Protein: L-lysine N6-monooxygenase MbtG
Amino acid sequence: MEQPTYSRDEIYDVIGIGLGPFNLGLAALLEPVAEIKGLFFERNQQFNWHPGVMIDGTTLQVPFMADLVTMADATSKYSYLSYLQEHQRLYHYYFLENFHIHRKEYNHYCQWAAGKLNSCRFGMNVRHVSLTEQAGRPLYELEVWNEKSGQLEIYFTKHLVIGIGTTPVIPEHLAEHVDESFFHSSQYMNHKQRILSSNSITVVGSGQSAAEVFQDLLKEQELRGYSLNWLTRSKGFFPMEYSKLGLEYFSPDYIEFFYSLSQQKKDELLPKQDLLYKGISAATIAEIYDELYRRTIANESIDIRLQAMTEVCEARKDSGIWNLTCKNWVSGEMNAQSSEVVIFGTGYKQTEPFFLNGITHFIQRDDKERLVIDRHYALKQTSYTENQIFIQNGELHSHGVGAPDLGLGAYRNSVIINQLAGREVYPVQQKNVFQTFSQTQTKESNALYHAMTSS
Structure:
């Protein structure tokens, strides 16, 4: 067996594993921080953000300021506006008058930033992490497979930042059927050209991804002639909460409130907040409705069916056709539907990376086997160690609905960087919203106001 290559005994302050938007933003914010030496690994060959749902014309659901850096440092050279300026598109964007970035351009923006950051290494697959000791000090040792050189490399670091990531979810009782005609929406663009020649297509789910897939297929239906169904187990095709006061739940203030609750209270509250982050944008619903209206002018018939409160109980494939047994869980009615293609826009789940197996016995878990994460995004460990493991987008259960939100990525990275540096590198504001979420916050806000006005 070939001997691994060591990083010449170089010790990093922090290594990030996974280069999605959150760790990429951390790399960008760390670049000007001289006292912190960081390195970031990604197993894929380049940054590519959800390519399977990169449907033409789709946009982010957050304003452009939710880029990699702006909410922590508006002067950063890695901001979206800097990207536009470098690509001579500032005036184009100015005249566009749209806060929401096209996903295609957001992906290109992130690729642009990744290409400028020397700390970001692609084609580097982290296989194993362990806690070791070097010169009397504890360090994390990483075994990393370099896809380009075909060599195993060893790196040492004081701290880790894990981009947890998510995996697509298809209902467990149907997952065994996955194939090229029965798949998750995350693979939609990979299969699109083939499925457009189908005679019937069914979309399952009621989140933004399901709606965008349905809308894209709706645009093609007149030309292609297939029948199109949209089913969801949810109570309806409802919009995501996007009022201005509702958006204040995606703030450091709400994180502070939510984190202070008992875990029992958190677990009770989260299922009641689905529409804060799981619904469909009102604009997408409106566009779909407008198209349905246009297509039915003069009582023209359309081969389209939308049905809520309906779950797919069983699926059987016969001669290339999926026979679905469905149930309306409100009325109890059963019905059968047939479809050549079935696409599941049924969300994602957080997954724990396998490379943590070497240190899993050091990591605290709650009674549901979830990671226990402190207020500053570090894993709580079974014994004291100064070597921290920070988590990106794995703290929904502990920090609330803002965990996957791009608009809070720069805030979380500010908190992590301040912890790594042991000082305030990026200021974190204490009052960011007009409402308060607890009496404690109200008292603190009043005290701050009096202190400011009396000075």
Notes: DSSP finds twelve helices and 19 strands in the chain.
